[in-house]
Amino acid sequence: MPVSRPWVALALACASGAALAAECPPLLQHELPKLRSKEVVDFCERFNGKALVVVNTASHCGFTPQFKGLEALYQRFRKDGLEVVGVPSDDFFQEADDDRKTAEVCYVNYGVTFTMTQTQPVRGRDATPLFRELAEQAGKAPRWNFYKYVVDRNGQVVASFPSKVKPDDPQLIEAVQKALAN
Question: Would you please indicate which residues are annotated as catalytic (active-site) residues?
């Protein structure tokens, strides 16, 4: 009679999980709750091997209309492997207190289809680990809402842009194309 060895299956599952983590760059080894959802965005699972534009957003900011440009950027390059990730933050006191209102601004007012997370801190000691890693690689933390990080397919920040740089700016487009080429 064969002996059941559940520990073998467990060991194999752990080993394959460790192998996946080893293949996933440190920048992507994060999870954030998705906006107005019970889902969690696993960055390794969703974005490994893709170029990213990660941007801290706010619903009540003079730069909020950039959602439209970010959506256009996403639509233009998504078939090439670009993902845009919006991370609402109240670090500059311009985000709604209620995720329903944040979602309404993003999804209803601006037609956002790219990934949006729940509100997170993005600077200082309280910054979410994703933004600590982005700031470390770029040498800069967000100074205001709609600060943009462009990340290549290998999980390396290739450029960062302040709030005033719009999503259709030629320098940002060039950085996206570079990130997609890596």
Answer: 61
Backbone φ and ψ for 42, nearest 5 degrees, come out as -90, 110
119-172 pLDDT per residue, tens? 999 999 999 999 999 999 999 999 999 999 999 999 999 999 999 999 999 999
Give the CA distances from residue 92 to residues 20, 69, 157, 169, 176, in Å, rounded to whole numbers and listed in that order. Answer: 36, 21, 23, 24, 26
pTM for the full model? 0.87
Give the chain's mean pLDDT. Answer: 90
CB 113 within 8 A of CB 71: yes
The domain limits of the chain are 25-181
- What is the topology classification, in CATH, of domain 25-181? Glutaredoxin (3.40.30)
Query: For residue 156, what is the DSSP state?
Result: -
**Phi-psi region for residue 11, left (φ > 0), alpha (ψ -120 to 50) or beta?**
alpha
Task: Say what the pLDDT of residue 182 is.
Answer: 83
CA torsion sign, 33 to 39 to 40 to 45? Answer: negative
Q: Phi-psi category of 175—alpha, beta or left, where left has phi over 0 and alpha has psi -120 to 50?
A: alpha
How far apart CA 158 and CA 18 sit, in angstroms, is 27
Question: How far, in Å, CA of 5 to CA of 3, rounded?
Answer: 6
Mean pLDDT lowest among 12-16, 38-42, 98-102: 12-16
